[in-house]
Design goal:
Number of helices: 8
Structural class: alpha/beta
Strand content: 15-25%
Order of helices and strands: EHEHEHEHHHEHEH
Helix content: 40-55%
Radius of gyration: 18 Å
Shape: globular
Distance between the termini: 32 Å
């Protein structure tokens, strides 16, 4: 499988403290650029034995440009049919803009869905705040019925992406339990804020929590 990632914009409705983009410039990808990316992916995928192409949408917050996503998806489906390629879409989103229309679109078009949430309300809202300074946890949690609908209709798990930072790393294990046991998510993708300078002692604390998480998964 060949995969391409389209960073559709540098716009967001959150202002996360650890965002790798820093200050966003407010720009969106031009349609021509996106189509050129798709065509590059098609040419590369044709050379692969399994003839599969994965197109990954990210931002900023990709759903701010949902109309562009719709356009690219339609174009990609038509082109991959012409080239006899299997096509998979993926999107990473903070979920604030997700509604019934968007979930149905994901279901209909074979999307893999990744939702960004760092843990329980206190942990998530340490860093993941709206541009007005409010926490995002309650908004994300209100969308859980839509996530369950997606899982039931696609037979796929919603993937959770969370970030370990210097102000939340001590809560890593508790966050893992909350996301899996309390909220019922099965697929957790954890990364660490590599832009911070971590001390040896902080790494040792995190190491113990990670080993504790291994025991938790075995017990579960």
């Amino acid at each position: 499988m060949y995969s391409i990632t389209l960073e559709l914009n540098q716009k967001c409705n959150l202002k996360c403290r650890y965002c790798y983009l820093g200050e966003k410039n407010g720009l969106s990808m031009e349609r021509k650029t996106a189509i050129n990316g798709v065509e590059l992916g098609i040419e590369k995928a044709k050379r692969h034995r399994d003839k599969k192409l994965l197109i990954d949408f990210i931002g900023g917050e990709a759903l701010i440009d949902f109309s562009l996503i719709r356009d690219i998806v339609k174009y990609s489906i038509d082109r991959c049919k012409e080239e006899s390629l299997d096509l998979i879409f993926c999107i990473t989103t903070n979920a604030l803009l997700i509604n019934d229309e968007i979930i149905d679109f994901f279901i209909e078009n074979n999307f893999n869905l990744k939702i960004s949430i760092d843990g329980n309300r206190d942990t998530n809202d340490l860093n993941r705040k709206t541009i007005k300074g409010k926490g995002s946890y309650d908004n994300i949690i209100s969308k859980i019925p839509l996530f369950r609908k997606y899982e039931e209709m696609t037979n796929k798990y919603v993937q959770i992406t969370n970030v370990i930072t210097k102000n939340n790393y001590k809560y890593y294990y508790n966050s893992l339990v909350h996301l899996t046991k309390d909220l019922g998510f099965k697929f957790i993708d954890t990364s660490i804020d590599k832009n911070s300078l971590w001390s040896y002692d902080e790494y040792k604390v995190l190491e113990k929590l990670i080993y504790k998480s291994f025991d938790y998964f075995i017990d579960r």
